[in-house]
User: What shape does this take?
Amino acid sequence: MIFQKAFYKTIDLLETYYDNHKQDDAIITILSDLDCTIFEDGKPVDQAVYTDWKNLISTLIKNEELSDNDMKDALINFLIYYQEEFGYKLEDAIDYFKNI
Assistant: This one.
């Protein structure tokens, strides 16, 4: 349950960022990969991206809870991972989330 809540919060934060920074193609790519509305089973389009996200966020969950600060840190870690591992241009998004 905590993963589902955190997952939807991640989507919400990324969508809010994208709504205000529409030129950010990297964020729309990640959002597309995490989209759960395409398939009937409700799973994200790219399960590997979801698995990466889940692995990064699971390190911050304590007693089946995730604070807002931990949620923000998890999102930042996720974006940094995608920037470093796959070369996504996410500097602006990372800076944005560090400063909110």
